[in-house]
Design brief:
alpha/beta, 16 helices, 8-stranded mixed sheet, elongated, 2 domains, Aminopeptidase, 6-stranded mixed sheet, 19 strands
Length: 499
């Protein structure tokens, strides 16, 4: 789908398959679009008087052109109350419109009249429209013999705006396209079956993004992991025939390699739970346990297009957690790259072991801060459900940046505490730490386990266990991988460039 900006002209004579116009609650369609009202001989105002058009949020009214206008159809898209209209509301409204457009028929050319508000200018509004259509059109076809799309593809979206807004609209389209590309890449990675998306395949996907945008990449294979003493990564991988990898990608947007943002992603391509095996019900969804790595790879894809003037080191640890005669066991004591020893209480708390080594590696490379993303704990799902990701930190200033980036991206993020009492629950009688501190507060306990490896480096942990994968579809989200936190991470990094 191509999204472009064009000069706004007479809407009545603009030829396209579907012309979309926004309407806020309380507005009179006949006053906002008198030329369309005249073309339809006053019938639009009549529809509004009868209550068929009200401007309610996410309301879409389809009106056939019947040769009264050049477009085959006119869609009036409800924007809701003006006082509540922001980026998220705009994206939601246009997302519903995109789904309506795509729900029937063949590929279409769509034109959108871009009307700004006091709170949302041309650039952000164009970004919202671009994201809405790009995210709504996403389709994972999988491995069926006959490919099937739930919705018809949209050939092109043309955003109609005034001449003086052209550069702002183009900037919004570029940013929106970058974030859509990253999010949809992350979605696809999460949707891939684990027999296709092995640790090697996930490593290859990360390398492909790096090479596409001229980033520097280093792949640490098993021998190098052993040399570095990455006992966390290696222990989790012991039960699988799949080799483990750690991928380190450098994005250099500044002349000097300093003030480096560290991004760390958990890439467990399938998690059976290992010897502490999970229940069979729902285990097929454990292909999504690499959602944190997918978010980081997707963010790199977006950043490669956005080209912010920042430095980033992304570290992705990818393994498969399987039970076998060689698998690590409850009761084992392992040594991580940091030198800290960990007693294994359950092999199903494996992600934190992988992240511990990746965090240590990032620290040794001299990053100035660390943001990690992981489908880490079932406890976060109990706490926050499936509509909000959890976050923890040792640095409130950094956390505020991430919360702001989440607001900008339109993703929900909720901060959880890291009180000292939680950290004490990870203490072991036989090692420095244990990898499971109990059931209650499990989401927090998993986060503060990672804090043991961060030290004084400013750090934010994002637990996306409840949000990386969904069983239900929405206007801009089919069932499956969500790509959650891709946009938040990209906005956070880009925000550092602007500041």
């Amino acid at each position: 789908m191509e999204v472009t900006a064009e000069k706004r002209s007479q809407l009545v004579s603009y030829a396209c398959d579907e012309l979309l116009v926004p309407l806020w609650k309380g507005e009179q369609l006949s006053q906002v679009y008198p030329e369309l009202e005249a073309a339809f001989a006053g019938s639009l105002g009549g529809l509004q008087q009868e209550g068929e058009i009200a401007g309610e949020a996410k309301e879409v009214t389809v009106i056939h052109g019947l040769n009264r206008i050049a477009a085959k159809k006119l869609l009036v898209v409800g924007m809701g109350e003006p006082g509540k209209f922001d980026f998220v509301a705009a994206r939601n409204a246009w997302g519903r419109a995109a789904k309506t457009v795509a729900s029937k028929g063949k590929a279409k050319i769509v034109a959108i009249d871009l009307r700004t508000t006091e709170h949302l200018g041309s650039e952000r509004l164009a970004q919202a429209v671009t994201e809405a259509f790009g995210l709504a059109e996403y389709n994972y076809e999988g491995y069926r013999q006959k490919a099937k799309r739930e919705f018809a593809p949209i050939a092109a979206v043309r955003i109609l705006a005034a001449d003086d807004a052209a550069s702002a609209v183009e900037a919004g389209v570029l940013r929106g396209n970058a974030l859509v590309s990253g999010t949809n890449l992350a979605r696809t990675l999460v949707n891939e079956p684990a027999n296709y998306l092995t640790p090697r395949a996930l490593k290859d996907a990360a390398v492909a993004v790096a090479e596409r945008y001229g980033m520097t990449v280093e792949v640490l294979e098993k021998a190098k992991l052993e040399e570095l003493g990455m006992g966390g990564v290696l222990s989790v991988a012991k039960g699988s025939e799949q080799e483990p990898y750690v991928v380190a990608i450098k994005y250099q947007g500044r002349e000097t390699w300093d003030d480096v943002i560290g991004l760390v992603g958990k890439g467990v391509t399938f998690d059976t739970g290992g010897i502490s095996i999970k229940p069979v019900a729902g285990m097929e969804d454990m292909k999504s346990d690499m959602g944190g790595a997918a978010a980081m790879i997707g963010a790199l894809e977006a950043l490669g297009q956005m080209k912010p003037k920042v430095n980033v080191l992304a570290v992705i640890g990818t393994v498969e957690n399987m039970p076998s005669g060689t698998a690590f066991r409850p009761g084992d004591v392992i040594t991580t790259m940091s030198g800290k020893t960990v007693e294994i209480i359950t092999t199903d708390a494996e992600g934190r072991l992988v992240l511990a080594d990746c965090i240590t590696y990032a620290k040794e490379q001299g990053v100035s801060c660390i943001v990690d993303a992981a489908t880490l704990t079932g406890g976060i799902v109990v706490a926050l459900g499936h509509y909000c990701s959890g976050a923890m930190t040792n640095n409130q200033e950094l956390m505020n940046e991430l919360l702001g980036a989440a607001d900008t991206a339109g993703e929900r993020l909720w901060q959880l505490p890291t009180f000292e009492e939680y950290r004490s629950l990870n203490k072991s009688r036989f090692a420095d730490l244990k990898n499971s501190g109990g059931r209650y507060g499990h989401g927090i306990i998993g986060g503060v386990f990672l804090q043991e490896f961060v030290g004084d480096t400013p750090w934010v942990h994002l637990d996306i266990a409840g949000t990386a994968y969904t069983a239900t579809a929405g206007d801009m989200q089919p069932a499956g991988g969500t790509g959650v936190m891709t946009r938040t991470i990209a906005e956070f990094v880009a925000g550092r460039s602007q500041s």
